[in-house]
Every structure is written in structure tokens, then in C-alpha cells.
Amino acid sequence: MVSRTATRLAADPPAIATAHFLAEADPYHPSANPDGYINLGTAENKLMWDLLEPVMTAPQSIHPSDIHYGQLYGTEPLRAGIAALLGRTWRARVDPTNLVVVSGATAALDIAATALCDPGEVIVVPAPYYAALNVDLVGRSGARLVPVSMADADGFALDPVALDRALHRLRHDGAVVRALAVTSPSNPQGQVHPAATLRELLRVATAHHVDVIADEIYAHCVFGSDRFVSMLDPDVVGGVLKADPNRIHVVWGFAKDFGLSGLKVGVLHTTGTATRAASRALAYFAPASTHTQALLRDLLADTVWVRRFLAESRQRLATSYRGAVADLTRFGIGYVPAQAGFTVWIDLRTCLPQPTYAAEHALWERIVGIAKVNILPGAVFGSPEPGWFRLCHALDPTLVHHGVARLAAMTGHARRSA
To answer: How far apart are alpha carbons 6 and 292 in whole angstroms?
Structure first.
């Protein structure tokens, strides 16, 4: 007999993970496996291995402390290196004592939610939103995720006014709301939130006495013209009267910005005495390997390499994005313009026989099962309307090209563009 929580989690695995492993078990190869899957569903940066390989495969000087028990919330040298990096990005002083290093951003989100929420309490999230938040924020905390539609905004852009209305409604209905959660840059849309929008979001949170959880995992993956702005940027926090920085909790990690998703190292920045103590205690259940932390410590120590790597990554992401949207445009597939991240939010609404999530799911099954292209349906991202899908572009451009061509053939766009 297992617990209700375990039963629920086992019965409802994240759709992202399920689709990923299906596609990765039978991958496309132009000669060895031309009928294999093309995985455009998993948000991984596969463009940077040539620069990572020398660092990842170089001889490493190992010390006894690198293979024994370390601080369960992160070794001091790694936290110092992360603080220096994020301080430059956030344009703010980052105290390493406020960082909790754990086994991935998933664990960091889980810890933030569990530290803030009791079972049944609410976390509000603008929709569409990163699909795994359904598990990351509520799987262990027992909190309830309440999506708020951004459909009325251009390109589903972040709309603090809609969030304010939703918070008023939830309060009126008797819900206990603990936090607003936001991905910045946004996932799946790849939008960079302006400082003015984030200030309005913080004003709303402050007025309603709720915390903010900001997932900034793509902070260094901005390839558009707009500057990334953190929730902790002085232009945001300093512009909101009575804003409490102790109620802003930021998550970051090495998976996206450094293309190191398999190392599973994430970070939670939290400054409140109680939330920091609770987060450190919860880190006991999700510590990162001390050996992996030593590898990343040494990586961050070479600040010249880090600066060049992140700049080159942004350039390559810009190129891969331009190639993907050129293919989409050629086949007449609509999309929301992106400025950051690895994904494009594409519009297949005209391919649905009826505007329903059931029709979207049926289309997705055909795309995955017949076209053998893994993209993810909008329903798993809480899309306010059916027919939107997330497509990843941060991989071999030939794969992206073939994947979009298969998608266009399946949906009829190839015939329309002929």
C-alpha cells in the first residue's frame, strides 16, 4: 500500500518527460534510422558541446572535500561563484549565504513551494506556463496551482492587471493565496519581461501580501534586442513602495544557460530568515553531488571563459531561432515571436476540426505517432485556448528543418505552401 501522494504522482507523470523518453529511445538518423523520432519537444541546448567538451573532459584536480559529505545546501566555493555570476546578471549584490544549491531547478522550485505553502493553499501562475510547474510546485507541497489566462495580451504577454483581478477573485472566494509564480524569460513563449511589467507584478504581489517565485532559468539565454531584467533588479524592487525583497524567491540553474541539464544543479535565492532556514532544511532531501559542485566551481572560476561561452551561446541561439522561424514561415505556420530561450510557441489552431483540447490531443497523437515529431501540446502548458504547441529549436538545424517539414506535411501546411 502506498500513499495517496505517491499514487497520484505515479499515475500522472510529467508529459514532458514521457514524450522525451519516447523520442530519445528511437532517434532519427539520416542513414541509420531515417524513420526515427525527431525530438523538438525537449528544451535542451545542444548547440554548445564543442565549447563544453574541453572543459568537461579536461583532467580535474580532486580534493578530499570534493568526494565527501559537504554542506547539503551547497559548498561555500560554489555558492560564491554563483553569487558572483548572478550578481552581474541581476545588477545587485548577491550574498552567497542566501543561495541554496540543490539537485536541479526542479528541486529548487519544489523547495520554494514547500517552504511557503501548506497543502491546499494557492500559487497563482500566468498561463500558458512551464508544464512541469504542475509537479514542481505542487507535487510535494500539496499546494494548488491556479492558472490565470494571458490570452487577452498580445502574444500571451505577462499581464499584471489580469493577475490582480484573479487574486481579488480568489480572496473573495476564500482561497489562501501564498505566491505568484512566473517564468522570466517566459516559457513556452520565450518573451523577455520589461522592468515596468515586473514592477507592476511586484506591486500586485505586495498589495495582496503574497510572495513571488521567479523561475529565471533562461536568464543568460536572451538573444533578442531587449535586456533581461531580474525580479531582483534594482529597477524592479526599488521602484515598488513597500516591496519586501524577503518575499521574492528566485530560481536559477546550470541546465539551460550552460547546456548542462544532465548535471542537475539548481539554485534558490531567498533572503528571509525563516524561508532560508526552511529551504536549507529541505535541501537535505535533494543535495547536489559534491564532485559535480567542484566541477562547476572550477568552471565558474574562469570568468573569461564563462563570459565568452554565454555570449557565443546567445549568438547560436539567435541563429537557430531564425532558422526555425524561417522554416515555419515558409510553411505558413504561425508563431509568437521570441527573444529568449530554446522554444517557439506555434499556432496550429487551424488544424483542429473543433476548437477543443480533445481535438488538440488527437492532433498531437498524430504528430508524435505518425509524423514521429515530438512537440508538446498547449494543454500541458495550461494554454488558455487549444491549438498551440511548443517547438524547440536549440539543436542541429538540419534536425529542426526535417522536423518542421514533417510537421507541415502532417498538418497540410506543406500542400498549402507548395
So the answer is: 29
Please state, in angstroms and as integers, the Cα–Cα distance from residue 379 to each residue in 200, 337, 342, 383, 394, following that order: 27, 20, 19, 5, 22
First and final CA of the chain: distance in angstroms? 58
The per-residue pLDDT for 417 is 63
Contact 159, 153 (CB under 8 A): yes
To the nearest 5 percent, what fractions of the chain are helix, strand and coil? 45, 15, 40
Pairing mode, strands 122-127 and 177-183: parallel
Indicate whether 57 belongs to any domain: no
283, 332: one domain: no
- Phi and psi at residue 118, in whole multiples of 5°? -95, 160
Which among 302, 320, 342 is the end of a domain?
302
pLDDT of residue 34: 92
Q: How far is Cα 340 from Cα 192, in angstroms, rounded to an integer?
A: 7
CB burial readout 358-377, b (16+ within 10 A) else e: ebbeebbeebbeebbbbbbb
DSSP type of residue 288: P
Q: Which residues contact 378 (CB under 8 A, 6 or more apart)?
A: 128, 360, 385, 386, 387, 388, 389, 390
Alpha carbon distances (Å) from 134 to 128, 236, 298, 380, 403: 12, 27, 34, 9, 28
pLDDT value of residue 304:
97
